[in-house]
């Protein structure tokens, strides 16, 4: 696939105004699926978490998942939306190889929630309001695995396998209105918006929001219009982008790609685009259909959803803090400077740090480990930090350090063991024998051996050249395989040298 011509980002913004739009799909963590009693689980053997309805078999009828409706209303309220007095499901008709009945049960002109807005904070602290058009309920499709190609995509594959486990998983799709005024911040705004949605649904407890698992996916719409023109340009929709970093990169790439085409006198095709993480590019998918092409009509097997005012008020009263409000409170509670707190936010680790503090860790230590060693390992492995280790394990690791059982150096080894699946921090400590040696007799034995081996160093220490003790400390740490406390070893070396 030939790489598209790209225009310099700043030059593209001089010529064109970017207009954005996002469709974020949130998988709900209900126990069962949207319209069946099949288990809603991740990682089961293919085609085992399903019932006849999920396969579209004749005679099977859908039944709405009450908990999914409650979760959807909660999300709508958190997005500042109005909740419809009555909403209806519809059939969205087109060929789904991964939905056996060849249509998706969704909502069309009568969504559960509509007309809201979300406040998004950029890296420098500026706030940007994203207008929400609607949030509607639907079911997810199954998963296709394309076999035989070089890229794992359908292009070039010899055949495809379908796993219906995901078919019917409850979804809420959040659709924004066109977003104007992002300008040079467009890529960052895309990342910040999806991150804010992730924070909201995690705060509500309605989704695991694991982007690498597809619990939360973003379709990013980008169009350009010449400066001074009122008519919107033709949009593309980059589908199922599954990391915050990729959302940012995909929006930047599409701005540069479309600008190059338009500046050369070409036209943009209204189509879906595939994002390629390895090359940082998009490629053409299929021509993007308009609503009429889906032949929506009311789902005849389901009644309208009519939530009572009492239920809506109950869910409204249970809403957690909005992300922006929560950030201001946490910054004050933790005593962080603007720069320290922004470091957490910009690393997209606020949820992880918050949960680690909730587990009992000191805020400073939680920030240090998540934005430091864990982020370093995640960057090296090109994964999200939250996928490597749990807040509970990080809190346990911090406690081992603060209790004197581990030095920072040993703790880094323990962390690597936890990440590699060797167990909890305590289990890794015991299995690897990494606990700090606190027995002075063992330390003194190693110190005496080192001093005997280096009498010249001993003489220097006795002459008042205490910096020479570093050689003895290093030898002792090596002999103890890093399990000694260097500060305690230094104290004992200096004491021993004067005896």
From TrEMBL:
GO molecular function: asparaginyl-tRNA synthase (glutamine-hydrolyzing) activity; ATP binding; glutaminyl-tRNA synthase (glutamine-hydrolyzing) activity; transferase activity
Gene3D superfamilies registered for this protein in UniProt: 1.10.10.410
SUPFAM superfamilies hit by this protein: GatB/YqeY motif, Glutamine synthetase/guanido kinase
Pfam families: GatB_N, GatB_Yqey
InterPro entries, A to Z: Asn/Gln-tRNA_amidoTrfase_suB/E (IPR017959), Asn/Gln-tRNA_Trfase_suB/E_cat (IPR006075), Asn/Gln_amidotransferase (IPR018027), Asn/Gln_tRNA_amidoTrase-B-like (IPR003789), GatB (IPR004413), GatB_Yqey_C_2 (IPR023168), Gln-tRNA_amidoTrfase_suB_CS (IPR017958), Gln_synth/guanido_kin_cat_dom (IPR014746)
Domain of life: Bacteria
Chain ranges of the Asn/Gln amidotransferase domain: 351-497
EC code(s) of this entry: 6.3.5.-
UniProt cross-references to SMART domains, sorted A to Z: GatB_Yqey
TM region positions: none
GO biological process, alphabetically ordered: glutaminyl-tRNAGln biosynthesis via transamidation; translation
Entry keyword set: ATP-binding, Ligase, Nucleotide-binding, Protein biosynthesis, Transferase
Substrates-to-products reaction catalysed: L-glutamyl-tRNA(Gln) + L-glutamine + ATP + H2O = L-glutaminyl-tRNA(Gln) + L-glutamate + ADP + phosphate + H(+); L-aspartyl-tRNA(Asn) + L-glutamine + ATP + H2O = L-asparaginyl-tRNA(Asn) + L-glutamate + ADP + phosphate + 2 H(+)
Function per UniProt: Allows the formation of correctly charged Asn-tRNA(Asn) or Gln-tRNA(Gln) through the transamidation of misacylated Asp-tRNA(Asn) or Glu-tRNA(Gln) in organisms which lack either or both of asparaginyl-tRNA or glutaminyl-tRNA synthetases. The reaction takes place in the presence of glutamine and ATP through an activated phospho-Asp-tRNA(Asn) or phospho-Glu-tRNA(Gln).
Subunit structure: Heterotrimer of A, B and C subunits.
Family membership noted in the UniProt record: Belongs to the GatB/GatE family. GatB subfamily.
Protein name per its UniProtKB record: Aspartyl/glutamyl-tRNA(Asn/Gln) amidotransferase subunit B
Native species: Diaminobutyricimonas aerilata
Gene (name only): gatB
């Amino acid at each position: 696939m030939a790489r598209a011509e790209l225009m310099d980002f700043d030059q593209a913004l001089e010529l064109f105004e970017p207009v954005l739009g996002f469709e974020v799909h949130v998988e709900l963590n209900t126990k069962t699926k949207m319209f069946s009693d099949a288990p809603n689980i991740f990682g089961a053997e293919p085609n085992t978490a399903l019932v006849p309805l999920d396969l579209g078999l004749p005679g099977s009828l859908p039944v709405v998942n009450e908990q999914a409706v409650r979760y959807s209303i909660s999300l709508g309220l958190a997005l500042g939306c109005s909740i419809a007095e009555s909403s209806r499901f519809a059939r969205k008709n087109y060929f789904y190889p991964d939905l056996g009945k060849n249509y998706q049960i969704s909502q069309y002109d009568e969504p559960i929630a509509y007309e809201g807005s979300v406040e998004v904070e950029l890296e420098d602290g500026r706030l940007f309001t994203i207008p929400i058009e609607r949030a509607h309920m639907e079911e997810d499709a199954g998963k296709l695995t394309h076999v035989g190609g070089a890229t794992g995509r359908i292009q070039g594959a010899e055949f495809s396998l379908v796993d219906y486990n995901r078919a019917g998983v409850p979804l809420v799709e959040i659709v924004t209105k066109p977003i104007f005024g992002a300008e040079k911040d467009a890529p960052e705004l895309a990342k910040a918006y999806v991150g804010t949605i992730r924070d909201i649904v995690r705060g509500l407890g309605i989704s695991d929001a694991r982007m690498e698992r597809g619990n939360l996916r973003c379709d990013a719409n980008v169009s350009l219009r010449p400066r001074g023109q009122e008519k919107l340009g033709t949009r593309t929709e980059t589908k199922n982008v599954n990391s915050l970093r990729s959302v940012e990169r995909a929006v930047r790439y599409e701005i540069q790609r479309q600008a190059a085409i338009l500046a050369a006198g070409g036209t943009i095709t209204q189509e879906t685009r595939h994002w390629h993480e390895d090359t940082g590019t998009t490629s053409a998918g299929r021509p993007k259909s308009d609503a009429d092409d889906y032949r929506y009509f009311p789902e005849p097997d389901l009644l309208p959803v009519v939530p009572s005012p009492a239920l809506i008020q109950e869910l409204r009263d249970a809403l957690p803090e909005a992300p922006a409000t929560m950030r201001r409170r946490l910054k004050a509670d933790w005593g962080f400077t603007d720069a320290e707190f922004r470091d957490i936010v910009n690393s997209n680790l606020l949820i992880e740090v918050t949960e680690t503090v909730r587990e009992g860790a000191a805020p400073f230590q939680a920030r240090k480990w998540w934005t430091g060693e864990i982020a370093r390992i995640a960057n090296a492995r090109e994964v999200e930090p939250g996928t490597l280790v749990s807040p509970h394990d990080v809190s346990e690791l911090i406690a081992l350090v603060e209790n004197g059982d581990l030095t920072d150096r040993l703790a880094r080894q323990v962390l690597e063991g936890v990440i590699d699946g060797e167990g909890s921090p305590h289990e890794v400590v015991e299995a690897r024998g990494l606990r700090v040696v606190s027995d002075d007799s063992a330390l003194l034995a190693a110190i005496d051996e080192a001093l005997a081996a280096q009498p010249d160093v001993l003489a220097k220490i006795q002459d008042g050249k205490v910096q020479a003790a570093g050689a003895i400390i290093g030898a002792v740490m090596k002999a103890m395989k890093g399990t000694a406390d260097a500060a305690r070893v230094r104290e004992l070396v200096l004491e021993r040298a004067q005896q």
